[in-house]
Amino acid sequence: MRAIRPLILFGIGGILYYFIEIIWRGYSHWTMFLLGGICFLLVGLINEIFELSLVKQMTISTVIITIAEFICGCIVNLQLGWNIWDYSELPMNILGQICLPYSILWFFLSLIAIILDDYLRNWLFGEEKPKYKLFKRG
């Protein structure tokens, strides 16, 4: 069962990411399912390895997601020419693949991913019930 956990979390994260895209843009691409699954797994690992406040987890998650989107965008958009997205018209973009406004949005959306990952681990796998501190002292 332990080996299946990452696959289950990957699938849930991929589906959620895919549907966020559909809600936000009206469409998505199968690569966004893969990217979402990877991001959800990585975000979920942060508090499995470290004991951090929610704000620190959200900050690290934002960096992880933004880097993952940049790498994915460079591959699927710039290298393969699939033109899945183009942020060239948005402020503070890098090569049209990532931009500051969406990174800020990922900061807030990452809170949902962090909490969802923790509760899924508790409900589905019997892991410890999550406890949170917005800011951690000491």
From TrEMBL:
TM ranges are 7-24, 30-50, 62-82, 94-116
Query: What Pfam families does UniProt report for this protein, alphabetically?
Result: ABC_trans_CmpB (PF06541)
Q: Does the keyword Chloroplast apply?
A: no
UniProt keyword annotations, A-Z: Membrane, Transmembrane, Transmembrane helix
State the superkingdom.
Bacteria
Keyword Transport belongs to the record: no
Return the InterPro entries for the record: CmpB_TMEM229
What name appears for this protein in its UniProt entry? ABC transporter permease
- Biological source species: Faecalicatena acetigenes
Lineage, broadest ranks: Bacteria, Bacillati, Bacillota, Clostridia, Lachnospirales
